[in-house]
Amino acid sequence: MDTISATQHDTGSGPDEDRGGHDRRGGRLGRVARSPLGWMLTGMVGIGLVSGLTATGPGPVPVLGAVAAVAVYWLVMRRVARRSTPEIARAGAGREVLLGGGIGLGFILVSALLITAFGGYSFSWAGDGFMSVVWTAVVVQIGAAVTEELLFRGLALQALEQLWGSRAALVITSLFFGVAHLGTPGANAWSAVAIALEAGVLLGAAFLWRRNIWFVVGLHFAWNLTQQLLGIPVSGHAPEGLFTVDTHGSALLTGGSFGLEASIMPVLMGVAIAAPMLVLARRNGGIRTRRHTSR
C-alpha cells in the first residue's frame, strides 16, 4: 500500500520548516492534531456530530448523513492526518460491499437458524407494509453501518495501529466496541463481552484482511438489516421488522431482550469466521507490528 506524507522531507528544510527542520504549520496545536490520537479524536468529533444530527432523521436523512460522514473522514485524513485514503477508494467499492454483505447475511441467517433449531426462536409474519418497513430499515442501517465503521475501523483501529501495531489496535477497539454498547436497552456485562468478540473482533479482522472500509460496511449493514427485518432486536433496540419473534428458553441461547447478538451462537461463529480472516491478513501483510508514521 502506497504511503505519502506531507509533513516529512527527505533532505533539507522545505518552505514549511524552519532551519531546525521543525514544521511551522499550526505550531504545537498542529503537531498534536496530526498525531494519530489527534486526528482520531478530531475525526470522531466530526463524524459523531454528523451521526447525532442525522441517525434518526426522516426519509433519506440517515443516508445523507452517511455521505457527509465519509466527506468528514476524507477531510480529516487528508487535511489533518495528511495521509492517503485507499480504504475508502471508489474503485471496487461495490464489489467489496457485496462480498462483505454476503458474509454478514450468512452470519445472521445461520445464527438465527441454529437458535431456532434449538428451540430458542419462533417467527410469525408481522403483517405490516412490506416496502415501508424495508425502506426504513435500509436507510437507517446504511447510516449506522457507515458511521460506526468510519469511527471504529477507519479512525480508531488505524490510529491505534500506528502507535502500537495491529494486534493491540484490534484488542482495544474490540473492547471499546463492546463497552460502547453498554448503554443500549437490555445490555449487561455479558452482552458487552459478546459484542466485543463477535462484532469487534470480526469487523476488525475483516478490515485488517481487506483494508477496505466498504467491505466492513457491507458486512455490518447486512448484519443489522437482516436482524431488523427478522424482527430480532438489534443491540437491544427493537425496531419494526417484517416478522415478530418469540423467544423461548435460556437467554444464553436467545440473547434475551438484547437480541441475537447476546446469544452464544453468533459469538462462537464470529470468532470462527474472524480466525481465518486474521490468518489471511497476516499472509498478505495486513498485520502490522510497528508504528507507521505516515500513509
From TrEMBL:
Keywords: Hydrolase, Membrane, Metalloprotease, Protease, Transmembrane, Transmembrane helix. Residues 16-26 have a biased composition (Basic and acidic residues). One of its GO terms (biological process) is CAAX-box protein maturation. Residues 1-11 have a biased composition (Polar residues). The chain crosses the membrane at residues 32-53, 59-76, 97-121, 133-152, 164-183, 189-209, 221-238, 258-281. Residues 133-225 form the CAAX prenyl protease 2/Lysostaphin resistance protein A-like domain. The keyword Aminoacyl-tRNA synthetase does not apply. Pfam families: Rce1-like. One of its GO terms (molecular function) is metallopeptidase activity. Residues 1-30 are annotated as: Disordered. Signal peptide: none annotated. Coiled coil: none annotated. This is CPBP family intramembrane metalloprotease. It comes from Streptomyces carminius.
